[in-house]
Amino acid sequence: MNNTTAQKNNDIWLYHFMCSKKRGIIKRPRVLFSAARSLEAFGMSEEKTRKRNSPLCFLDGRGLRDQRPLHEGNIAFAPKFDMPQLLSLISEHVFFWPKFKKNFAKRYGDNWLIRCRLADLEKVNPGNPARCCRYNSGAPRCSGGRKSPRGPDLFEPLANVPRRKVVEIVFRGSVSLPNDCEFFSPDEWQKKSRADNW
Q: How far, in whole angstroms, is CA 41 from its chain's centroid?
């Protein structure tokens, strides 16, 4: 990564919502794991290719959100690519939003929020390059009668996509967090988002 790219990435704040049953003080994670890694750790690997219609909570208090917005009827699958493969591909990644949206409270109101700079994430994950998606990969919609494309190339190298077209930023498998990342409880981030222009 050259200096120009590093400077641009230093200006990008990323937001990750962490599903947890606990609203009080919880242990701050140093590593975030993909849904696939979490399912494997609890002996539930077969769930990687099944759509979650309700949240899934683990014994340690962490959890995975439902996948209700993932409507198969809205998807134009690439040749030889299907729903189980899409679910597996999505589950292999850790997701970040590159923009904060006011409607996040409706979907993620009971989740903890982690905020950090893309450049800082890249520094502590040198062997795991950030990739991105031009769509909300888990919420396909039809536009003008056209279905939303999904295939094995869903997540592209970040350098290949203009910043204005990046909807999600992902890391495969797991991602280490920088020491200076910010960590907010559900009440804290909602209060802060109302006061600040994130």
A: 19
Quote the CA–CA distance of 187 and 24 in Å, as a whole number. 10
Pairing of strands 31-33, 168-172: unpaired
Per-domain residue ranges of the chain: 3-195
Residue 119's φ and ψ, nearest 5 degrees, are -60, -40
Compute the distance between CA of residue 39 and CA of residue 111 in angstroms, rounded to an integer: 19
| pLDDT level of residue 25 (50, 70, 90 thresholds) | very low
Tell me: the pLDDT tens digits for 65-86? 899 999 999 999 999 999 999 9
Which amino acid makes up residue 159?
A
What 3-state DSSP class applies to 86?
Answer: helix
Q: How far is CA 38 from the centre of its chain?
A: 14
In this structure, what are the phi and psi dihedrals at residue 79, rounded to the nearest 5 degrees? -55, 135
